[in-house]
Amino acid sequence: MKKVLILACSVVFAAAAFGSDTTRVKSSSTGTVKRDEAPLTLPTGFKSVVIAADLGRARHLTIAANGDVFVKLAKLKDGKGIIHLHDKNGDGKADEVTGFGNYVGTGITIKNGYLYASSDEDIFRYKIDEKTGKVDEGSEQKIVTGLWNKNQHESKSIVLDNNGNIYTNIGAPSNCCQVQDRVKGSPGQDPCPILEKAGGIWQFKADKLNQSYPEGVRYATGLRNVVGLDWNTEVNNLYVMQHGRDQLFQFFPELFNQKEGAENPAEEMFRLTKGADCGWPYCYYDNDKHEKLVTPEYGGDRKKADRCADKTKSVAQFPGHLAPNGLLFYTGSQFPEKYKNGAFIAFHGSWNRAPEPQAGFFVVFMPFKDGMPSGKWEVFADGFSQLPKDVTSGRAKYRPCGLAQGPDGSLYVSDDNNGTIWKVSYSK
Amino acid sequence: MKKVMLAILVLVIASAFVSQQTKPQPGGLKAAMTRGKTVYETVCLACHQVDGLGVQNMNPPLAKTKWVLGDKKALIKIVLKGLQGGEIEIDGDKFHNPMPPQESTLSDQEIADVLTYIRNSFGNKASLVAVGEVKAMRAKLK
């Protein structure tokens, strides 16, 4: 009887395994790639391939010179916070999935022989051999520590310049610095005390250990929360994408109707130089008036510019609440000429447009010339949300988050809902 | 005959009294749901969404979770006093937006209505929240 049972069980298991084989490609390690998962909608000539799936909360990613992909996770997978993807057999998909680093976070980047990665409080680095993709885990150094993590806007994105500096955002743990956060009628604090330790970009040395606020430089202030940022090597400047404040319609229905609340304020792109003040929480960019105006919590009436007139102006504005989580200036030669030096932006997708339909959940492209936008933005990659049009649900299937450029000029996109990694390439 | 009438009258009054006891919401469930829906759409929907499913990692869902269907006292306290981001964890996922305290913006009746509404919407089914329960919790937290 026992034998029959074991036999029956084995048959069932084998059948189940066989069944799943028709939809999944088994990899040699923990990762599996669903064969036909989520083809993206792309311009003519571009195609996408899912190189890895089911990594979980895959935030930012970076590619080594040999093509190996490193993904930072906001939730540990099998106890690991950094995933290393290697394509051993050259079929374009990751078949060796390993991990290291036991902390969650968002930021990850490679520069000058080091892999940098962030938790929500610290920045670490590891020696990496970019020719083989091999990371020396034992070389871990903590270069920055003790940054504010108060649960809201807690993620730290990182990027380096060409002068040995590393930049990180420290998001404000607040919507707009009210006395009582997100309580209708609570006034804005003036001055906003949060700005001393957060709501800006901080600069540190890339090779000095255990730096914190005293060793850092507040490079730019007045930025509520930044997730997407990149160093533009063409003009040698830092560019960041700000997530604008929420709840204008809910808190100020006399100033913003439901539709205006969904469209405002703008999500803004800033080109930063040291000392920039982008205006949060006192100012917001009004997408209907095309101007930086005083925030209602600080006495704004959708007309007054007052103290906002001399704030750093954004170089591009986007519809409200789309949540720009990834920014990448394209320096490759694989894509057609118009993409050279232009910006790709991964929009995570909205929630604060409800009850209006949610929006975002796409990667856009904006052409640039000499470090300034030279044309309108257009949707480049779409099809992530898989929500029917005009549905107001906040639960998209895939949410684009990180962007990276491969050594061959391909564009990589991560999704932090399921942990899908797409490689987008072009051929004539 | 007079006696019978009196008995009926007593019975009617008594039953009205009893139903007042078991129906802690003015107008019963239907009226509370209608009032609660209005409160939900004005105050809660922006974060918890039309479908009550919230937003991944940002705003927690209200559907089929112990936070909503379980202990009413704990639920009332959350609405009155709010929560810090990260305090709610469902199936290993944390939600990072804070819940703003509503003690200064919503009345006891409005809180009872909206909690009754969320406990009986989005596929949920649970007992009503009475205004007295909110009043008691507000007094206790003072």
From TrEMBL, chain A:
Key words of the record? Signal
Q: What is this protein called?
A: Sorbosone dehydrogenase
Under the heading InterPro entries, the entry gives:
6-blade_b-propeller_TolB-like (IPR011042), Beta-prop_PDH (IPR054539), Quinoprot_gluc/sorb_DH_b-prop (IPR011041)
Tell me what organism the protein belongs to: Niastella yeongjuensis
* Taxonomy, superkingdom: Bacteria
- Domain Pyrroloquinoline quinone-dependent pyranose dehydrogenase beta-propeller, chain residue ranges per copy: 42-425
Pfam entry (one): TrAA12
| Position of the signal peptide | 1-19
TrEMBL record, chain B:
Provide the leader sequence positions. 1-24
Its keywords, alphabetically, are: Heme, Iron, Metal-binding, Signal
UniProt cross-references to InterPro entries, sorted A to Z? Cyt_c-like_dom, Cyt_c-like_dom_sf, Cytochrome_c-type_DH
Location of the Cytochrome c domain: 31-122
Where does the source fall among the domains of life?
Bacteria
Which GO terms fall under molecular function for this chain's record?
electron transfer activity; heme binding; metal ion binding
Q: What is this protein called?
A: Cytochrome c domain-containing protein
